[in-house]
Specification:
Blueprint: H1 2-18, H2 27-84, E1 105-106, E2 113-115, E3 122-124, E4 131-135, E5 140-142, E6 149-160, E7 169-179, E8 185-195
Parallel strand pairs: 1-6
Antiparallel strand pairs: 2-3, 4-5, 4-6, 6-7, 7-8
Length: 198
C-alpha cells in the first residue's frame, strides 16, 4: 500500500511538473513582449506621421514660393508696361494707361503693398497686409472680395529705390508668410533687383 501511495504521488508529481509554471510565460516575460510589440508598432507610425508633416510643410513652401515669384513677375510686367507705353511713363510711377507701383516704393523699404496679379491695381497695406483668398473655380489666389475664403498665405511686396545711389535700379522684396499645422509661422522671401531699361 505504501508503495502504491508513492507511485501515485510520483505520477502526480510528474504531471504537475509537466504543467508547472516553469513551462509557461511569467508576468515579466509577458510585459516585455507587450512593450516590444508596442515599440514595433509605434516606431513606424511616428515616422509616417513625421513624413506626412514634412509633406505638408513642403507643399506650403512650394505654394508660397510660387506666390512670391508671381509678385516678382507682376512687378516686371508693370515695369515693361510703363516703359513700353507710347507716353513714356515713369517706370515705377506709371500713368493713366500704365501700372502705378508707387504704393510699394520707398527709399528705406518701409512701404508695404499688395496686389492681385490678375488685375492692375496696387494698394498700400496700411500696416499688416491681409490674407490672400483662393478661388477654386479659377484655381488662383487673389484679393477679390467674392465668396472665396481667406487662406493662410499673406504676401507683402516692397520696392526700395534708389539702390546704391542709382535711380535706375530698385530692390524688390516679396515675402509670403503663413502658419503651418503646428502653428509655426513660416515665410519665403524672394529678392530681386530690377532696372529701368529702355
Amino acid at each position: 500500500m505504501i508503495s502504491k501511495f508513492f507511485k501515485t504521488t510520483r505520477r502526480l508529481k510528474d504531471r504537475l511538473s509537466k504543467t508547472s509554471p516553469l513551462r509557461g510565460f511569467s508576468l515579466i516575460e509577458a510585459l516585455v513582449s507587450v512593450l516590444l510589440l508596442t515599440g514595433a508598432i509605434t516606431g513606424p507610425l511616428s515616422i509616417a506621421a513625421q513624413g506626412f508633416q514634412g509633406a505638408l510643410v513642403a507643399r506650403d513652401q512650394v505654394t508660397a514660393f510660387f506666390l512670391a515669384q508671381d509678385a516678382v513677375e507682376f512687378v516686371q510686367f508693370a515695369r515693361a508696361t510703363n516703359r513700353l507705353n507710347p507716353n513714356n511713363y515713369d517706370w515705377l510711377a506709371g500713368g493713366t494707361g500704365g501700372v502705378v507701383l508707387t504704393p510699394c516704393v520707398s527709399t528705406d523699404g518701409s512701404a508695404l503693398c499688395y496686389f492681385d496679379s490678375m488685375q492692375t491695381g496696387v494698394f498700400s497695406c496700411g500696416g499688416a497686409c491681409g490674407a490672400m483668398k483662393y478661388d477654386p473655380s479659377t484655381r488662383a489666389y487673389n484679393y477679390d472680395t467674392g465668396v472665396q475664403t481667406p487662406q493662410k498665405f499673406t504676401r507683402t511686396v516692397k520696392i526700395e529705390t534708389p539702390v546704391s545711389g542709382s535711380a535706375g535700379e530698385a530692390a524688390l522684396t516679396v515675402t509670403v508668410a503663413w502658419q503651418d499645422q503646428g502653428l509655426l509661422t513660416r515665410s519665403v522671401t524672394v529678392r530681386e533687383h530690377i532696372t529701368n531699361w529702355q
